[in-house]
Amino acid sequence: MIVEVLSPSTEGIDRREKLHAYQGIPSLQEYVMVSQEEQKVELYRRDGKYWQYFLLDKNDTLHLECLDVDIKMSEVYEDVFK
User: Fold this and answer.
1) Distances (CA, A) of 5 to 29, 53, 80
2) Model pTM?
């Protein structure tokens, strides 16, 4: 699993170049992009030879299959957005 915290200055690179490069890593199962600007998380999960995309907002729960854990978005952003 790789987790990136997006910043305005690098978000474009993270979405294009890094995403493409990371998806080429055979052992990578999940790639998570966490927004700094709003309560939003994007999850890419490997499903065989394809990738699934999930967009989560402040009311969702992030399920990480590779760790078998659920994290509420309120926990991801605890003490960040009030």
Assistant:
1) 18, 17, 13
2) 0.89
